[in-house]
Design a protein that fits this description.
Belongs to the AHA1 family. Residues 11-127 form the Activator of Hsp90 ATPase homologue 1/2-like C-terminal domain. This protein is of the alpha+beta class. The protein is 32% helix and 38% strand. It has one domain (2-135): START domain (Alpha-D-Glucose-1,6-Bisphosphate, Chain A, domain 4), CATH 3.30.530.20. It has three helices and seven strands, in the order βααββββββα.
Length: 136
């Protein structure tokens, strides 16, 4: 099995990053505005990227300010069955986020393209959370 791993450092409190990744308002600001999201294990988040299908992610784990885990139950064929995990830690005024997108069946061009897009996602998360923190 193949995986994508990306890391970023965000100059914002860990709770700001966690809340952005677990709320409709937060994910709507950084990923897609067309979504249905709840902060509840077992809930199936839905993301609309203007494709012919919705991407559906079942929430497997929520550890407050530490970890978020999703399982892709419906999306592009290569995403189905994969897992997305966000691991958070904080040191001083900086939150470290480790994003893992695992259980890919093969290393494909689509996986490589998704790796790039996850990096852009983390950049968007960083810009959003740091802007919030500056305005607090």
């Amino acid at each position: 099995m193949e995986s994508i791993e990306q890391i970023n450092y965000i100059k914002a409190p860990i709770h700001t990053v966690y809340n952005t990744l677990t709320t409709q308002e937060g994910l709507g600001a950084i990923w897609t505005k067309k979504l249905k999201v709840k902060h509840e294990v077992g809930y199936i988040n839905e993301f609309d990227f203007d494709e012919e299908y919705l991407t559906k992610m079942k929430i497997i784990a929520l550890q407050n300010n530490r970890k978020i885990e999703w399982e892709c139950i419906f999306s592009d064929a290569e995403w189905k069955g994969t897992r997305v995990i966000f691991e958070l830690s904080e040191k001083g005024n900086t939150t470290m986020i480790l994003l893992k997108h695992s259980d890919w069946k093969a290393k494909t061009d689509y996986l490589r393209w998704c790796s790039y897009n996850w990096a852009m996602f983390l950049f968007s998360l960083k810009m959003h959370c740091e802007a919030i923190h500056q305005n607090e």
